[in-house]
Amino acid sequence: MSLPRLENAGIDAWVVRLFDTIDEANMPWLTSFCRQCESVFDDALVDLVPSYTTVLVHYDVMKLDAGDARQRLVRILEGLAPDDVSADAPLKELPVWYDESVGPELARLQAASGLDLDGVIDMHRGRDYRVFALGFAPGYAFMGRLDDPLVVPRLATPRKRVPAGSVAVAERQTAAYPSLSPGGWNLIGRTPVRLFDRQTEGFSLLQVGDRVRFVAIDRDTFVEMGGDVTPVEERSSQSATEDQGDRE
Amino acid sequence: MSGLRVERAGPLTTLQDAGRFGVRRLGATQGGPADLHGWAWSNYLLGNPWNTPALEIVLGNLSLVVERDATLALMGADLQACLDGRPVKPGETFAVREGQYLTFQVPVNGIRAYLAVVGGFVADPVLGSVACVIRDGLGGHDGQGHALASGDRVAFAADDALSADRRLPSPAEVPTINYQEESSLSMVPGAQVAEFTGRSLFTAFHADWHIDDRADRMGVRLAGPSLRSRVTSMISEGIALGAVQVPSDGQPIVLLNDRQTIGGYPRMGTLTPLACSRLAQCQPGQVVRLQPVALGQAQREHHDFLSRFLA
Fold first, then answer.
1. I need a labelling partner for B1 at 20 to 30 A (CA). Which of A181, A185, B31, B273 fits?
2. In the prediction, which pLDDT does A85 show?
3. Judging by DSSP bridges, how do beta strands B237-238 and B219-223 pair with one another?
4. Are residues A80 and A97 in the same domain?
5. B187 and B153 in a common domain
6. What is the residue-averaged pLDDT of chain B?
């Protein structure tokens, strides 16, 4: 780990920059750092946003000034050890019905990779991914990294309506849409699992640092699990996403 | 429970408490009042504690029917509010009776009015907050992240007795703000500020910035000279309220309450919460300036602001 940097993010937040490049090996450090922040800041902690290489730490200005907060962060960094990934990181399995009706870009991935349909599916489900960050929408998990043949850019024209459960890829990442939303990623299948549920403990099925594996299921199993088989709509010609650099 | 019924819904009226905190790591944004100052004062006028839900009314064209007697307070923008035809000004505390009409017409000063009721409006918290975030489908009067629509009801808390716990502010203490005046927005430099060219930094703090018409609860675009950063895109990271990000077109965007939780554009720094409040009252075309402020000073000022309401 290179030397972390602390950058102010306004009157009540610091960005702690632990790494400079995206790497699955970053995540045990970030999750450990977040847990330490929770215990060291205790009720002076307002929010934490871990993401790929950084953690945004939002603290309560009525309880701490910027210097105090900084000192606490430095203390945490000095004693930081990564989480033990081999034992602790939960492996979550996400069932996916890979089918062109719900994953119209399977064809695009075949063309780009030179693989046949089964080859694309086998490669996508053939390895574990790590959750780097959640963002774009509640429960939307950015996972990586994809194997080289599956790397394709985002769609030139995003869809206005991507159905809930859609499993998608873009560049070196993969994700699943928790709810109906606009989106510009390549759709390759659909999961029947609820990814974000306000009634469930923790709310989001996927959390930063999780290991995730996609498991192929057939149409009958998908339906049995409550999946919606409605095909993906044709793409419209107009973008609905507001580009704030933090699109999905 | 009853309170207000919406007869005609304006462009955007939402229920807001202080915001949704502790779940940003799940991708849920903070929401809360875009003008924290106006929202906080609306509750303070009635003796309501911090975090009490109040209505954020944008631009007006709203008609509400009172379904239960209560005491309300109005703060923030002047949207030509009238109670059965009698004008109600920002800063006023006023009694309403069942059957009366409270209407909002067009903005004459600012764009966001805050309507509070003794004890607060009642809604079930979602992920710990009633803050309405439409994009996330969370919070608000119905829990589903919807703005008020015609026919909707929003309930008053059961207890409508004015709190005697503390002295209520006298009319002279209530601030009046001319939101149309050119304002200077305090920004704490930070983040990627060192990546901006010297000329861009000079320009940022000396140019007139025009409020673009692409302005909402997610963010406000500022139109003016183009700013240049040596980095054009970054690995996405957590974004604080008020972050001033500069995409490749060089036109800054100030990110407000409903911003996405992470983002990947270079940032010059972060507006203070009160500067965000001020910005959120600006109409498209208005002019603002950016002014650098030291972290320590900005933090003390916000601490002082909050102290009044949290005492």
1. B31
2. 73
3. unpaired
4. no
5. no
6. 95
- DSSP letter at A148 equals G
pLDDT in tens, B109-160: 999 999 999 999 999 999 999 999 999 999 999 999 999 999 999 999 976 5
Interface of A with B in 190-219 (CB under 8 A): 196, 198, 203-204, 207-208
- Domain assignment present for residue B286? The answer is yes
Q: What is the CATH number of the domain that holds B288?
A: 2.40.100.10
Confidence of residue A50 (pLDDT cuts 50, 70, 90): very high
Hey, of B229, B237, B306, which one would you mutate to test binding to chain A, going by the most A CBs within 10 A of its CB? B237
C-alpha closest to that of A19 among B95, B235, B307: B235
| Residues A116 and A128 placed together within one structural domain of the fold | yes
pLDDT of B283 over the 90 cut: yes
Taking the C-alpha atoms of residue B103 and residue B107, their distance in angstroms, rounded to an integer, is 12
Same domain assignment for residues A152 and A197: yes
Do residues A96 and A81 share a domain?
no
pLDDT in tens, A171-191: 999 999 999 999 999 999 999
Determine contact, residues B220/B250, Cβ cutoff 8 Å: no
Q: Which of residues 128-157 of A touch B (CB under 8 A)?
A: 133-140, 142
Do A110 and A203 lie in one domain? The reply is yes
Which residues span the domain enclosing B290? 183-310
Q: Indicate the number of domains in chain A.
A: 2
Where residue A118 sits, what CATH number does that domain have? Answer: 2.40.100.10
- From A87, A115, A144, give the residue that closes a domain: A87
Q: Is residue A142 part of a domain?
A: yes
The rounded percent of chain A whose pLDDT value lies above 90 is 86
Grade residue B162 by pLDDT with cuts at 50, 70 and 90: low
The pLDDT tens digits for B181-200 are 999 999 999 989 999 999 99
CB pairs under 8 A between A and B: 166
End-of-domain residue from the set B138, B154, B173? B173
Q: Is the peptide bond before A145 cis (omega within 30 degrees of 0)?
A: yes
Does residue B303 sit in helix, strand or coil? helix
The Cα–Cα gap between A240 and B17 comes to 28
In angstroms, the CA B160 to CA A82 distance is 53
- What is the residue range of A193's domain? 90-224
Q: Which residues of B touch A133 (CB under 8 A)?
A: 236, 262
Element spanning B215, H or E: strand B209-215
Give the per-residue pLDDT at A89.
64
